[in-house]
Amino acid sequence: MLESLIQEIGKRLEEGLCVELPDGRVLGSGNCKVKVKDKNVILNILK
User: Fold this and answer.
1) Coil, strand or helix: which one is 38?
2) Helix, coil or strand: residue 1
3) Alpha-carbon distances of 38 from 20, 24, 34, 43, rounded to whole Å
4) Gap between the terminal Cα atoms of the chain
5) d(C-alpha 35, C-alpha 19), whole Å
6) Edge-to-edge order in the sheet of strand 34-36
7) Does residue 37 sit in helix, strand or coil?
């Protein structure tokens, strides 16, 4: 469940945007300019 959610977030991230997960993993493009840690922002990406 969590893995598929993580993959979905990764697919929807815009270029230059990435998400830092609580366990320290970072999702997103290799060209990470902005790290998102706020879970509300992450939930908005999924909408």
Assistant:
1) coil
2) coil
3) 9, 13, 12, 9
4) 17
5) 5
6) 26-28, 17-20, 34-36
7) coil
Distance CA 47, CA 25 (A): 22
Whose tokens are 């959610």? That residue is 5
- Residue written as tokens 């970072």? 26
Residue 1: pLDDT over 70:
no
The structure tokens 């230059």 sit at: 16
Chain-wide mean pLDDT for the chain? 76
Residue by residue, DSSP assigns 5-36 as HHHHHHHHPPTTEEEE-TTS-EEE-SS--EEE
Helix (H, G, I), strand (E, B) or coil at 47: coil
Q: What is the pLDDT of residues 18-36, one digit of tens each?
A: 788 778 888 876 677 777 7
